[in-house]
Specification:
five-stranded mixed sheet, 428 residues, single chain, Rossmann fold, 14 helices, binds glutamic acid, alpha/beta
């Protein structure tokens, strides 16, 4: 989340400016792409359970739709800002382009804390969001999906409101819906599994067996949980996970030398990925405050929480042992920390590539909704693997050929595709 000293949108623009230079983009292209096409800020008045009305702030930013309708998640978070949403919308444009799906980039958010809201209050926020924004969204314009602290249930409430307004069934309006109500098998797993598909490919390049590796994961929400599950299935050992402690309002890492037991930790975890400290300690986990997840002597770091987590303040604490960083979160690494990671020769799998599995599966969900025919889970995950692996290979081939950092190579491919689409449409 944005803090006083950090602005995600400035970071996204800095990243873009760097690629614009690499691609030698003209002024018009730069002007168009370093800012969103459209943005909306609005009030979501909501009846609370106690009868009062509370007004929440909502945002939706449509960064670019040259390659297809805008696509991207919707976050519920107390620290959401318009600039954070702008950055995330821009990152979605590049993410969809790097995995070559016919979608643009968008993002939304509501400033609220679901920890303190009943299910009914959250439902009314979802419906209120659609009432404010529905006329500017739709299956052919802008398609939301789950993100931080929103789930399949939130998506279904929004769909229901959208369909009530339009008087017709429109399952392509939103993705990440529950299976059985237009959702795709595998969507819940998709982002985390996608992260591990890219880690598997990176390990192949480095000629390291997954079963010989250890990992430390920041976050214990949807992305982290499924990344851990697949990585463990490949034979890897996760020795440390971290999460946000809502009560203490700080982060904690949970470490077990022989490796964490996913089922055991999940049994003491709330629906937001918060691990109960005392319960975990009773299960033999060591609880370490702060950024301990990042200081572990592991082969792989998987930041899967929020943006701006690896910064110039803690990057030097990354162990010499670390060979791969796979960015499960959006924008977890500040540009200064990124420079250090690059100089240290750590194999970085950048966010736009590493966590593209979620939106790729959202695209599959739309395809299935259009056909009204739904694939089995194996088929979905097989297609996801092909998309992720193809994208990984394209990025790593370019990185090798042009002796480029992985992040630069991913950006060059993505931005170039978007520029071409804008150019071919006659926008620039
Ligand atoms: N919120 C996810 C992301 O940041 C998925 C977006 C989507 O499925 O549209 O990539």
């Amino acid at each position: 989340m944005a803090t006083k000293s950090f602005n995600s949108f400035e970071m996204a623009q800095r990243q873009f400016d760097h690629v614009a230079e690499l691609l030698d983009l003209d002024l018009g292209s730069k002007d168009l792409l370093r800012n969103p096409l459209r943005e909306y800020a609005f009030a979501v008045p909501t009846r609370m359970d106690d009868g009062t009305v509370k007004v929440f702030r909502g945002y939706r930013v449509q960064h670019n739709d040259a390659r297809g309708p805008c696509k991207g998640g919707l976050r519920f978070h107390p620290m959401e800002t318009l600039d954070t949403v702008r950055a995330l919308a821009m990152w979605m444009t590049w993410k969809c382009a790097v995995v070559d799906i016919p979608l643009g980039g968008g993002k939304g958010g509501v400033i609220c804390d679901p920890h303190n809201l009943s299910a009914g209050e959250q439902e009314r926020i979802c419906r209120g969001f659609v009432r404010q924004m529905g006329r500017n969204m739709g299956p052919h314009t802008d398609i939301p999906a789950p993100d931080v602290m929103t789930s399949a249930q939130h998506m279904l409430w929004m769909l229901d409101e959208f369909e009530a307004i339009h008087g017709s069934k429109q399952p392509g309006f939103i993705t990440g819906k529950p299976v059985g109500v237009g959702g795709s098998q595998g969507r819940t797993e998709a982002t985390g599994f996608g992260v591990v598909f890219t880690i598997r490919e990176a390990l192949k390049e480095l000629d390291i067996r997954a079963s010989d590796t250890t990992a430390s994961v920041q976050g214990f929400g949807n992305v982290a949980q499924y990344a851990i599950r697949l990585y463990q299935q490949l034979g890897g050992t996760v020795t440390c996970v971290s999460c946000w402690d809502q009560e203490a309002q700080s982060s904690y890492a949970f470490r077990k030398k022989g490796g964490i037991d996913l089922g055991e930790l999940l049994s003491v975890t709330d629906r937001f990925g918060g691990i109960q400290k005392e319960e975990a300690c009773k299960l033999g986990y060591e609880a370490l405050p702060g950024d301990a997840w990042l200081e572990q002597d592991v082969d792989i770091l998987i930041p899967s929480a929020l943006e701006h987590q690896i910064t110039d303040e803690n990057v030097d604490r990354i162990s010499r042992h670390v060979k791969i960083i796979a960015e499960g979160a959006n924008g977890p690494t500040s540009p200064d920390a990124d420079k250090t990671i690059r100089e240290r020769g750590i194999f970085l799998i950048p966010d736009l590539l590493a966590n593209a599995g979620g939106v790729t599966c959202s695209y599959f969900e739309q395809v299935q909704c259009n056909m009204n025919y739904f694939w089995e889970k194996d088929e979905v995950l097989g297609k996801l693997d092909v998309k992720m692996t193809t994208a990984f290979i394209a990025v790593s081939e370019l990185a090798k050929k042009r002796k480029m950092y992985m992040r630069d190579a991913a950006y060059v491919i993505a931005v170039d595709r978007v520029v071409h689409a804008c150019h071919d449409r006659g926008w620039i």
